[in-house]
Fold this protein.
Amino acid sequence: MSVHYAVVLAAGAVLSSSVFAQGAARLPNAGASSGYIRIGDADSLEPQQLTIDLTFVPMGVGTGNSNDANGATLIAKPREGAGGVYIFSWAMQWSPTARSINAHLSNNGTSVGAAVRAGCSLALGSTARATMTFDGATLRLYINGRLAAEEATGFSSVWYGTDDVLIGAGNYCCGFTRRFDGVIDDVSLWDRALSAQEVADLDGSALGGDEANLIGLWQFDDGTYDDATGNGNHGAAVGSASLTDDLGNAAPCAADVDGDACLSTNDFFAYLTAYQAQDSAADFSPPGGDGLINTNDFFAFLAAYQAGC
């Protein structure tokens, strides 16, 4: 019998193991606990056009000044120990303050770059797939296969130094380590920008490692942090990072009416539609519903929506 693992970056919350059909990684960055994954610098990890895709579950605010608008690092090729603005080649982060996902690129490793932020909220314990692409002109961010934000960069090249790739940490100067507290899985890196349809169809757990343009794949399935592409860019656990196949079960976010695991005005209007139609999806009060749809349900939904879940 095969065992599927996950990398664990935190403790506390629980999530459905069906989310990670092939396992995941756990990184405990809360209190005195600290852990992330390090992948050594390599020319093969420096694409000028790219796609980065991963699945994650935030379990806490993280550590190292992660509780701000930029947030905790999901994955980055950072200039460790540096201070400034665009002090990385690229990065994806989750902000516990905004409960949002953002993506960044740098053109010079210091002051020139581009950033986009998803216009939706992801609560603690929720699961999302985040994908960033760059085609040499436009930076795009997708959440769960849907385009969430895009911006013309004004530059066509990505800056690269000799820095390692980090999963779950930024390790910048002055206490800004930006370490993520949660679970990360099925990380893939490509040397071209996948199309919107390709992003929508992407399933990191189903990749074999030999797909065209795939240059890095870390699935955490076999009890290791190895790269499944054959390029040999294997990862190593730092600190308390670990692999797990015991992910528990989490209650779904009640306010996520449209079912995309990311709260936005779409959910608000989807609820209004259900409420006006007296649909069972609008039955919020008491928790679990009572078969009646009235103003109590509306205010119960509104409270959950405002609370970010």
Summary: The chain has a mean pLDDT of 87.
